[in-house]
Write a structure and sequence with these properties.
Elements (H helix, E strand, L loop, with lengths): L1 H20 L42 H27 L3 H27 L10 H11 L3 H29 L5 H21 L14
């Protein structure tokens, strides 16, 4: 019995010695992860402005936007002289008739100046309204009374707002000595027309686009 106990004691002592002499268990060290660079969307740079759309004339270069202004003024004059003549004949609202009277007079002036400027620069002169303008003419041709008044006033009010933006753009940057004073005059007339149309009481402001930059 004593021999057995001695044997167990010796085995235990041997095991402890082996454990003590064993190399330590290596610790696994995780290397720190390199930070992932954040990816930002590429910032778009404004397209370089070119002068390829300029047409040289004896009065200075005219841009495509300047040519567009001359075309639209001619086309709107054809539409608004026609529809304003109807407004004078059909409307029972004195404010509508007064707006129509002024619009006719001033658009005849713009039409004459526009034709003269285009001819002097050898540019084409619009002979008829644009398709969307013609659609408005055709629609108003069959309207009378308050229906006509509302359509006439709101169609022209919206169109004048769009034209005012175009005129302001051309006036700000044009290099053409004929277009510059023409844009000034057109802008003055357009603002006069807007005020007269608003005085009719028929403008539906919800039809106007929300201003944006």
């Amino acid at each position: 019995m004593k021999t057995r106990n001695l044997w167990i004691t010796l085995c235990g002592t041997f095991a402890l010695a082996v454990t003590a002499c064993a190399p330590p268990t290596p610790q696994v060290v995780t290397a720190p992860q390199a930070p992932v660079p954040s990816v930002r969307p590429a910032t778009s740079t404004p397209a370089a402005q070119t002068e390829g759309d300029l047409t040289e004339t004896a009065f200075g270069p005219i841009s495509s936007v300047g040519r567009k202004l001359l075309t639209i003024v001619e086309q709107t004059s054809l539409r608004e002289i026609t529809t304003s003549t109807w407004a004078q004949q059909r409307s029972s609202n004195p404010a509508v008739r007064e707006a129509a009277r002024v619009i006719i007079t001033q658009h005849k002036d713009l039409e004459n100046r526009d034709t003269d400027i285009s001819t002097r620069m050898n540019l084409p002169v619009a002979a008829e309204p644009a398709p969307d303008m013609q659609a408005g003419i055709d629609r108003m041709r069959t309207e009378f009374g308050e229906t006509f008044d509302r359509d006439y006033v709101n169609t022209l009010r919206k169109a004048h707002a769009e034209a005012l933006i175009l005129v302001s753009t051309v006036r700000a940057d044009t290099r053409n000595s004929l277009v510059r004073p023409f844009a000034d005059l057109a802008g003055d007339y357009i603002k006069t027309h807007i005020n007269l149309l608003e005085k009719t009481g028929d403008v539906d402001y919800t039809q106007l686009p929300v201003p944006d930059l």
